[in-house]
Amino acid sequence: MQPFAMQRHVEYYEADMTGKLSLPMILNWAVLASKMQGDALGVGQDVHLARGLGWVILQYEVTVKRRPKINEAVKVQTFAAKYNPFFVRRPFAFFDAAGEEVIRVDSIWAMIDIENRRMARIPEDIINAYQAEYVKQIPRIPNPAHFASDEVYEAKDYHVRYLDIDANQHVNNSKYFEWMQDVMAPEFLNTHEVTTINLRFENEIRLGHTIQSQVVHQEHESKHRIMMGDVVSAEAEFKWRDA
């Protein structure tokens, strides 16, 4: 398999109110590293977009030891680990200047036909460039906990804007983290640090849709759901520690 690493510094606009790398930006950095690797291998966005194909992420599992601070140097390392004709398992590791792993992101990817919005077989010439291991079945990430039917949740509505949409013609993944965090009280976010996140995408959201971000949370865990009407678009489970 072909490993790839990129070097970054946390800029002020990539941090939240705590001065640390924001949760949406963790996903943006991971996706950027994967894009840069594809470009370096000659199978980047221009190649698959020319065929009407786009990469999408189906699920993330994020483990956070600590979030890097503004101006801190970070190395993000990734590779395509395992694949079959329709799915790829890709890990990301974030290292600080001392070489200590501070964040790990495991992810499952697929390709879609952009025009008909259906899953597509991954072209062999594209996946072969990564030298990933072929497996019949991709190791699964456990599903996040579901909402119980009788649970009381807090909620907020959002309209999907033009700038929420990326080149694959769907909502950028980091927007889900924004919606999920924004429905929580700033006082809680300023006094707690996330330790693990399990986020699973279920149904696509498009430009002009109105969604509702819902949360049920206790002191050290929260469950999240993005709804479009009665349809679940994404579910997530967060675990927290005192800051």
TrEMBL record:
Coiled-coil region(s): none
Gene3D superfamilies: Hotdog Thioesterase
UniProt keyword terms in alphabetical order: Fatty acid biosynthesis, Fatty acid metabolism, Hydrolase, Lipid biosynthesis, Lipid metabolism, Transit peptide
GO molecular function annotation: acyl carrier activity; fatty acyl-[ACP] hydrolase activity
UniProt domain Acyl-ACP thioesterase-like C-terminal: residue ranges: 149-241
A Pfam short name: Acyl-ACP_TE_C
InterPro entries: Acyl-ACP_TE_C (IPR049427), Acyl-ACP_thioesterase_NHD (IPR002864), FATA/B (IPR045023), HotDog_dom_sf (IPR029069)
Family annotation (SUPFAM superfamilies): Thioesterase/thiol ester dehydrase-isomerase
Domain Acyl-ACP thioesterase N-terminal hotdog: 4-130
UniProt family annotation: Belongs to the acyl-ACP thioesterase family.
Protein name, UniProt field: Acyl-ACP thioesterase
Species, as recorded: Leuconostoc lactis
